[in-house]
Amino acid sequence: MTKRLFCFGLGYSARVLARRLKGEGFAIAGTCREEETAAALRREGYEVFLFSRERPLEKAAAALAGTTHLLGSVPPDAEGDPVLDCHGEDIAALGRGLKWIGYLSTTGVYGDRKGGWVDEDSPIEPTTERGRRRAAAEAGWLDLWWDHGLPVHIFRLASIYGPGRNALDEVKSGRAKRVVKEGQVFSRIHVEDIATVLQASMAKPNPGRIYNVCDDDPAPPQQVVAFAAGLLGRDPPPEIPFEQAELSDMAKSFYAENKRVRNGRIKSELGVALAYPDFHVGLRSLLAAS
Question: Based on C-alpha coordinates, what's the Rg of the chain?
Answer without folding.
Answer: 19
